[in-house]
Structures are given as C-alpha cells and as structure tokens.
Amino acid sequence: MQAWRVHRNGEPSEVMRLEATDRPEPGEGQLLLKVRAANINFPDALLCRGHYQVTPPLPFTPGVEVCGETEDGRRVIATAALPHGGLAEYTVADAAAVLPAPEALDDAEAAALHIGYQTGWFGLHRRAHLQEGETLLVHAAAGGVGSAAVQLGKAAGARVIGVVGGPEKAAVARELGCDVVIDRRSDDIVAAVKEATGGRGADVIYDPVGGDAYAKSAKCVAFEGRILVVGFASGTIPSPALNHALVKNYSIVGLHWGLYNAKDPRSILRCHETLTEYAAKGLIKPLISERVAFADAAGAVQRVADGTTTGRLVVVPEGAPS
Predict the structure, then answer these.
(1) Fewest beta carbons less than 10 Å away: which of 10, 41, 67, 262?
(2) Would the pLDDT of 132 be above 80?
(3) Coil, helix or strand for 127?
(4) pLDDT single digits (tens) 144-175
(5) Which residues is 143 bridged to in the sheet?
(6) Do 164 and 173 touch, CB atoms closer than 8 A?
(7) How far apart are CA 86 and CA 216, in angstroms?
(8) How far apart are CA 75 and CA 57, in angstroms?
(9) How many other C-beta atoms lie within 10 A of the C-beta of residue 277?
(10) Would you say 226 and 206 are in contact if contact means Cβ atoms under 8 Å apart?
(11) Is 183 helix (H, G, I), strand (E, B) or coil?
(12) pLDDT higher than 50, residue 322
C-alpha cells in the first residue's frame, strides 16, 4: 500500500515521504480499516516535529483521525493507532474506540467530526458547564477546532463571539453563525468584548491558541467566568497569574480530551450519540475548506502547521469514495 511516513523529526513538508509499504497488521483488540478520508489535525504537525505528548517510534505514519471502512463493510470513524496513522491507504484502530460514521455526513465531514467536536462538547459542557443565554468567546473561530466550538455553542443556545485573524476568516466566522466577529489584526479584543457584553465580559472563553490570546482572555472574562484551556497553537504556553483569577473570581479550566478514553470511555460513546443527533438535525456540520489529494498530504499538513488554513483540510486517498 501507499503511506506517508516520517523517518526523522522536522517540518512536515520536509520529513513526510510517500512510500510503498506493507499493510499494518492489527494487534489484539484492533481492527484494520481501509481509509476513506483522513482529517488533518494540528497534532499531526506536532508529531512530525517530535513535539507531541505521544512520541511514536520512527518511522511512523501521521494522521490521527479517519473515516474508514471495516473488513465487513461498516463505515466508521476512529482515531488511528500510531505508529500506523491515517495518511495511508490502510490504518489500524482500537476496536473499542471505533464509532459508526453519522449518515448525515459524507466521508470527509465524518473524518473531521470526532476529535474536534468531542473536544468542543466535553470542553463546553462537561468542563465549562456552558448555559443557555451565556456569552461564549471562541479564539481562532474560523479554524478547525474553533469552528466546531462555534457550532456547538450555538446549538447550546449561547451568544457566540468569534475572534479571527483577517477579513477572509471573519467572513467564515459570520457564515458559521457567530453573533459578533472580532478581527484580532485590526480590533482591540478586550474593548470589543466589553462593548459587545455591556462591560460584563464573556462567561466562557474557548482558547485553543494560548499565548497572547490567553492574556487577552483574562482581561475580558466575566465575573465567575471560565477560561477553557484547549491547546497552544500559538506555540506559547501562558503562565497564568493566579492572584488575578482570585481577585476577579474566574476559573481556569483545562481539557485533555484523550484522558476520557482511559478514565471514562462510556462518556465518549454518549457524546458521539449526541453529536450524531446534532448532525442529523443540521445543528453541526464540519467546515471542510478543502478535500486534498493523497499526493498533496505533506503540503496540507504543513499549511495546518503554519496556521494559514480555515476550517478543515481532509485528505482523500485515490480510489476512495468522494
């Protein structure tokens, strides 16, 4: 089969190589999946760089999220079991974590549903306890992770403020349903949030960026608000001033979605059932900005790493259903 493999760590466009290799052999409790579509996530870039919390042995195939087909013909979504990632014609996944692909979504959309929307749902509902009528601020609202949070926030009945970088991404955020859109390149984020909320601030802030985005969040979070720390796409991990959290009565809440696989796997299935219902009702639909040819996967991972994309880039192997 054909697979993208990484033999040394570095930038994705430099270290990913398309090679002919044997199909992976599923281990005990695993399934072999024919890849129908592979969604590109920021962790794929971190894996290539050797900066992710999981460090698979070299060589490995990136691609942590797929829509695939089982040997008995079932259409499913899964997180690939590294080192046999999803940027290949075949991958393997733990059987217990394989979920049915929602019928309302095509392969590319289904491939982009699992990690981003599960992260959003657990973050907004289980960790931040977002309530109907509250104000949700989403950083990087036009990106893959942020766009999922916007849709889930609207589905929960929240008023959503989206922060983006540039007019093109602002237009995307408006189309997603953001009630207010802030362009961080031209607007004062803190002043704009205070103006949009009558001086109160945002009740829940969804931050997959870190760095300066977190610093701005702390200045515009509401009384008893919750700053949800989801990731650090900026590359800078903030050091919160805990005296500030004490004085302003807000919470700093962390989310590592992957822990639920080990600590509470049933909750992932319940969440998937909810997301499937949302998809059937049209409340959520992954924003696929580009369906990428398999031969162009390395360049696509690099673009996600560079933060130049909107929505999701999904790789579709040659011969897979469109």
Answers:
(1) 262
(2) yes
(3) helix
(4) 999 999 999 999 999 999 999 999 999 999 99
(5) 311
(6) yes
(7) 36
(8) 29
(9) 13
(10) no
(11) strand
(12) no
Cα separation, 120 vs 112, whole angstroms: 13
Helix axis angle, 114-121 relative to 144-155, nearest 10°? 50
Cis ω before 83 (30° cut-off from 0): yes
Residue 219: other Cβ atoms inside 10 A: 14
Which residue, chain included where needed, has tokens 């190589």?
17
Instruction: Identify residue 30 by its one-letter amino acid code.
Output: Q
CB 152 within 8 Å of CB 228: no
For 80, 82, 115, 194, the CA distances from 30, given in Å and listed in that order, are 10, 12, 19, 50
Query: Which alpha helices (DSSP H) does the chain contain, by range?
Result: 12-15, 42-49, 107-111, 114-121, 144-155, 167-176, 189-196, 212-220, 242-248, 259-263, 265-281, 297-306
CA 108 to chain centre: 14
User: Scanning the structure block, which residue is given the tokens 């031209």?
Assistant: 186
Per the listing, tokens 């981003």 go with 116
- The 8-class DSSP code of residue 88 comes to B
3-state secondary structure of 5: strand
Paired strand residues for 3: 19, 88
Tokens of 240: 């919160």
Q: For 74-88, what is the mean pLDDT?
A: 97
What digits encode the pLDDT tens for the residues 245-283?
999 999 999 999 989 988 999 999 999 999 999 999 999
Q: Which two tokens stand for residue 58?
A: 């070299």
